[in-house]
Design a protein that fits this description.
Elements (H helix, E strand, L loop, with lengths): L1 E4 L2 E4 L4 E7 L8 E7 L5 E7 L8 E3 L7 E6 L4 E6 L8 E9 L2 E4 L3 E6 L1
Parallel strand pairs: 2-11
Antiparallel strand pairs: 1-3, 3-8, 4-5, 4-9, 5-6, 7-8, 9-10, 9-11
């Protein structure tokens, strides 16, 4: 089970950090990612990190590159999305995701609203 937290309302230019907790599972050995659903659009990829044996290398959508940072705390079984320089177009419901042996797990989503 994945549980997100950290969403909220922020002004443009501000920052938020989203957290995702894994119940009974380590993030270090699996592919993890963040997605978002913007109102009226399909869910879209935001950021991902590879498993630890692949260096937990990060990947980003072009729209967030340079502003968002994905990270994994292996000791705490937590993953994070640090979002800086937020713009109104980042307003969406954000979901954490883990691919565990081919099974896709999703969090419940957390709302991020960026006001102009």
């Amino acid at each position: 089970q994945l549980v997100e937290s950290g969403g909220g309302l922020v002004q443009a230019g501000g920052s938020l950090r989203l957290s995702c907790a894994a119940s009974g599972r380590s993030f270090s050995s699996v592919y993890v990612a963040w997605y978002r659903r913007i109102p009226g659009k399909e869910r879209e990829f935001v950021a991902a990190a590879t498993p630890i044996w692949l260096g937990q290398s990060p990947y980003y959508a072009d729209s967030v590159k340079g502003r968002f940072t994905i990270s994994v705390d292996n000791a705490k079984n937590m993953m994070y999305l640090q979002m800086n320089s937020l713009i109104p177009e980042d307003t969406a419901i954000y979901y954490c995701h883990a691919d565990i042996n081919g099974v896709h797990y999703w969090g419940q989503g957390t709302q991020v609203t960026v006001s102009s």
